[in-house]
Amino acid sequence: MRAKCINRELTTEVIVGAFMMTVLLGLGYFTIILSRQAWFIEQQPLDVRFAHVMGLRDGDNVVCRGMPIGTVDRLELRQDGVHVLANLESPVTLHEDYVITVVTTSILGGRHLEINEGTHSLPIVEREFYDGTPPYDLIGDAAAVVNGLRKGLVEEGTIENFRKTSEQLRDITTRINEGEGLLGRLVSKDDTLYNDIAASAKALREITGRLQEGKSTIGKLLSDDDKIYKDLTATVASLRAVAERLESGKSTLGKLMSDDAEIYKDLAEATASAKRIAENLEKGEGLIGRMLTDDSLYDDVSSTVKEARDTMEDMREASPVSTFSSIFFGAF
Amino acid sequence: MITREPEFFPPPKGMLGRIGRGVIFSCREAGLAGIMLVQAILATRFMFTRRARREIIDQMFMAGIKSLKVITVVAVFTGMILALQTGIELRKFNQEVNIGTAVMVSMLREMGPFMTGLILAACVGSAIAAQIGTMVVSEEVAALEIMSIDPVRFLVMPRLVAMTIMTPALAFYTCILGVIGGGIVGATQLGVSWQAYIDNATRFADVKDLYVGILKGVLFGIIITTVSCHEGFATTQGAVGVGLSTRQAVVTSFLLLLIVGYMVTRLFYV
Description:
The complex is a heterodimer.
Chain A: H1 2-35, E1 44-50, E2 61-64, E3 67-78, E4 81-88, E5 99-106, E6 109-116, E7 130-131, H2 138-155, H3 158-177, H4 181-187, H5 192-213, H6 216-222, H7 227-248, H8 251-257, H9 262-283, H10 286-293, H11 295-330
Parallel strand pairs in A: 1-7, 2-6
Antiparallel strand pairs in A: 1-4, 2-3, 3-4, 5-6
Helix pairs in contact in A: 5-6, 7-8, 9-10, 10-11
Chain B: H1 14-43, H2 50-63, H3 68-91, H4 99-137, H5 140-146, H6 151-188, H7 194-204, H8 207-233, H9 238-269
Helix pairs in contact in B: 1-6, 1-8, 2-6, 3-4, 3-6, 4-6, 4-7, 4-8, 4-9, 6-7, 6-8, 8-9
């Protein structure tokens, strides 16, 4: 009975002790995890001077290229600014154009120290402490944007403009609803305009159909068959050749169009001569002039021609007799 | 002298009389509880005696190990509820990955110790009050005093030590299980990978959060034991009085847990 009692007591003690040991181990483990201290890793100290750290706290992460490489050990407020003393688990080499700044971790808050090592081709910088870039104040910038918007909306009359614009829009929509204007007529229950537009569209569709089918001259021009195009090209080529010939002064027309005035002079002289001849003819000078102006000469010529015709007639009538006589007397 | 003789007072006159008597009695009860607590703390110098050690281990087993089943279920589901409620809202901003932070910080700072305190007040505190109350009404406590055995050292000190040790331990246990429960919800319901959940949970929580939670556990253990023992010793009127004392112990413990929890948070975080 006593042994059973002792066993029960022992079991109780072991269970309670095991539970307490487990809890203490867990507590120690969580203490190490949450303190973010790398107790068994050699760390590289980093001292960064800021004018303002925007709420950075001890234990916040140090991030390089998106990877946590250490934690902020402590912050010291000195005469020359706020010194952030961090411990880095991975060594970081900073170059001349390095950037170290305080960044907001997430929308829910939190900060971390962001290190940009700089361009690797530039010389390495080794200092007692490094200068940090002023943090990007997201809330401050957002406040500035809001202030700018408010100024623009209230002070610069944007809201008034919106109000006027909305009034104009309301006026326009009212007019449209009342069926005024082209849009109003389109929107109204009267289908006349719609029918007209529909008919126009139909006509246009027919025209385009005809064009697509290659009917009519434009359709043929638009069709895939390039016969007309070739004809036109040939015509244009011919015209170009003609134009070239005209420009070069070949052929009569070309010579007429050329800068050489010889033909023009000849034509002018010929025209002057013709003019003089016409004047002489009008004056009745010369044979033709007299023929044109004096009827007696016409009569004389007519009678002479008549007499000559009579003579020729007589000779035609006497020619058999004379021919026979010639042959008869020629035989002797 | 722990054992009280029944007291009879004339009924109070008017509203002010009732209020005045209530205030005076409350102050008196608080004073008696405080005196008992100081006596128990002074009695801890005997806690390493073999008999006291045996009693403390027993009380730790009763208060801690036997409450593990209830605490496990409550802790896991508390973490799951926290993760689900927070995750649903954070999902609107595509920030559900941050449930780890929300669950971890909530559990460490407040929910872990508070849920543990509630469970222990309901399970252990009521048992203490009922046990001591029964001893009082059956005059076992009076017998102890007659035998010159200090009831505070004999009954209160082991329970106080046991609860002061076990409550923070169970609070830490609750926190861990709550975080695990939140991770289960994150992985199965919200599409947050376990690794991302744990990374996020440990990124923003601080050692201070952990140890403030532990401190709350210590304070809650002291409060539950003190209130329960005091209500047990104040039991009168037999079995009915035991029931009343038990109920009063649980209610008072709940209220004090809330008030002290707020004050500790106010002290460390504001």
